[in-house]
Design goal:
The structure holds 2 protein chains of 2 kinds.
Chain A lengths: L3 E3 L3 E4 L5 E7 L5 E8 L3 E8 L6 E2 L6 E7 L2 E6 L8 E8 L6 E2 L3 E5 L1
Parallel strand pairs in A: 2-11
Antiparallel strand pairs in A: 1-3, 3-8, 4-5, 4-9, 5-6, 7-8, 9-10, 9-11
Chain B lengths: L3 E3 L4 E4 L4 E7 L6 E7 L6 E6 L3 E5 L2 E6 L4 E6 L8 E8 L5 E2 L3 E6 L1
Parallel strand pairs in B: 2-11
Antiparallel strand pairs in B: 1-3, 3-8, 4-5, 4-9, 6-7, 7-8, 9-10, 9-11
The chains are: A mainly beta, B mainly beta.
């Protein structure tokens, strides 16, 4: 079975803090994705990556950056957390152009 | 214009009935289509994928695809209370997934 893990299920941070969200997949998938999910807005793509050290902006990249130094690991970074970044963050991985498999999600609260 | 449109619901059906969930998409080059189920507070989990026109059945679930009409649907037969969740439609035109906002389904015992 595909396994996608995320570093935290719940996280509480203060405004202005730098926040790291880690995602690891164990299926050697090429593609990895970061989404945020908010009520009424659905899943919105922040960044995605097709390969190590490659990254592409999604629909809402502002305020976020990513890092992919190893194929299995994709990190989302909030450089200076703000209250409007309070959300559920979901990581996903997929083989080329095929099914996405999601991690359990991180519910981030920024105070 | 949204890439993927779903009725947000809520959709309520009695236990044992057929639940019908619908999705339309705007990108005609889309080749891959997916249905995910998401329980409250949990992450989406894949139910079905479909790539060709017609029906695809897996247990109580049937996905239907009509590329000419840009329409994909999910039928759940013999609905159970455990099917109560939000169902997300997703399409992949080649290099990125587009998700609908989901349809909330409640199965009433």
């Amino acid at each position: 079975d595909v396994k996608v893990t995320q570093s935290s299920r719940y996280l509480v941070k203060r405004t202005g803090e730098k926040v790291f969200l880690e995602c690891v997949q164990d299926m050697d998938h090429e593609n990895m994705f970061w989404y945020r999910q908010d009520p009424g807005l659905g899943l919105r793509l922040i960044y995605f990556s097709y390969d190590v050290k490659m990254k592409e902006k999604g629909d809402i990249p502002e305020g976020y950056s990513v890092s992919r130094e190893k194929k299995e690991r994709f990190s989302l970074i909030l450089e200076s957390a703000s209250t409007n970044q309070t959300s559920m963050y979901l990581c996903a991985s997929s083989p080329l152009a095929d099914t996405q498999y999601f991690g359990p999600g991180t519910r981030l609260t920024v105070l | 214009q949204k890439e993927v449109e779903q009725n947000s619901g809520p959709l309520s059906v009695p236990e044992g009935a057929i639940a019908s969930l619908n999705c339309t998409y705007s990108d005609r080059v889309s080749q891959s289509f997916f249905w995910y189920r998401q329980y409250s507070g949990k992450s989406p989990e894949l139910i079905m994928s479909i790539y060709s026109n017609g029906d695809k059945e897996d247990g109580r679930f049937t996905a239907q695809l009509n590329k000419a009409s840009q329409y994909v649907s999910l039928l759940i037969r013999d609905s159970q209370p455990s099917d109560s969740a939000t169902y997300l439609c997703a399409v992949n035109p080649g290099n990125q997934f587009y998700f609908g906002t989901g349809t909330s389904l409640t199965v009433i015992p």
